[in-house]
Give the backbone structure.
Amino acid sequence: MTSSAANDLELICPAGTPPALRVAVDAGAHAVYCGFQDETNARNFPGLNFSRADMAAAIDYAHQRNCKVFIAVNTFPRAGDAALWRRAIDDAAALGADAVILADIGLLAYAAERQPDLRLHLSVQAAASSPEAIRFYTDTFGVKRVVLPRVLSVAEIADINAAVACETEVFVFGGLCVMEEGRCSLSSYVTGRSPNMHGVCSPPSHVSYHEADGSFVSRLGNFTINRIPARQPAAYPTLCKGAFRAGGTVGQVFEDAVSLDASKLLPALSRAGVKALKIEGRQRSRAYTRAVVGAFRAALDAMANNTEIPLGILLQLSEGQSATHGAYVKTWR
Amino acid sequence: MFTLSFRRDFRVPDVVSSALRPLPLLPLEIFLQQLASNIVTRHPDILTRIGRTDLLRFGIDPTDVPFAIEIELRDGVVGVHLRRELDEQSQHARISGTLAALMRLVDGEADGDALFFSREIVVTGDIAAVLALRNAVDAAEIGILREAAALIGLWISEPGRLLRGMLTDEPRRERRAQDERFRQ
């Protein structure tokens, strides 16, 4: 790969709070994505996110340092009650956001019509995984960038990039979803609240932990999700990463409790024509942001300088303290 | 601005913990109450981000010292009480871990999820309240050792200043000088 291609890769970093945004900018983010303090974004956790005043100051801080700010308005509005989401789009434009990240076609239509100067990115929540789906969004709403769902191999991403005119963005680090992004109802089934509608998967109000028989037991609603023996790594109790008895064995039926770490695949993703690399984790701390953004910026700088990419330094920040290449290198069980 | 922090693997030695055991808790409780009030005054956004006005009682249990801290939030007021042991039933949520892990969490040096994944901290009770507290504290950029050092400095310097005031005419001279400046 050429160093100029590496130079063109953008590092898109998460920020759940204004200090996390400043940390991300200072650690070398090319763009930071964040959301307002309500259910319009998919990380609507208690104590997180930005008021309008926070957002104005954050955009000012980032722009002074040549860093872009993308505002995620990536949940799906309630039927007949889209005012909160539309206001988020209008405010993002008024505050000078560099793009909004949207998933719902109604909101895309609204933004394209009412805010024609606002750059539109398609959220991973829209789950656009084929050239035909992507072209629908680019041709209909003028979407400039699509965040690809985490179901594609590197080769499939290369094929998509060869077939579409817009930019693509892919996740390179952080918590993994169950690969039904934007369509998953597991959290709704157990708690009545979902990432798609309420911006929160497995809401903490429905989570409980306790010790039993020497094991650490995590529950979501009325379901036991995991029983973890002493000294083994823990994970947040999402239904998709729970251990269940099936076919006579106990194990993670849907997905392992691991995080994505595609740092080894950065050159391959660059060759596949990807424009931007996204780090998951708006619900994480400043310490996480500092470490992960710093590591990936160092990796991009190493690629640009044709030196070896530093690897494997982020394992302790991963869920279950374990990492995977996810679907980029498919080795299905 | 100076930085103070704990090493990741620091653990209060057993001998120190044993030596602390017979000491009365009241002086430390008064100090921590003042420290917590100062932090909330300087960082009002903490309470805004937590976003609850009902009574919230957190049990903070540093596993390597012989006491635990009960933090009570209600209507924007913070209360701190030290306990020899936490009563499981009287807190809404409880966070346990070594003193270093808890301090690094508050200081933004460690990631709360990573400490949880590695089992260095254990949380029970109202997890939504714990997350709100963690996110609010992380957003406040508190340097707790720095805040504590500043408070200790104030406690040392303030009695000295008052004593100097009683024994010398320094305050009267300062007032006279101010009056002079005002007249000019």
Remarks:
- The longest strand of chain B covers residues 56-62.
- Residues 14-144 of chain B form a domain with the Nonspecific Lipid-transfer Protein; Chain A fold (CATH 3.30.1050.10).
- Chain B touches chain A at residues 49-51, 108-114, 116-119, 122-136, 138-141 (CB under 8 Å).
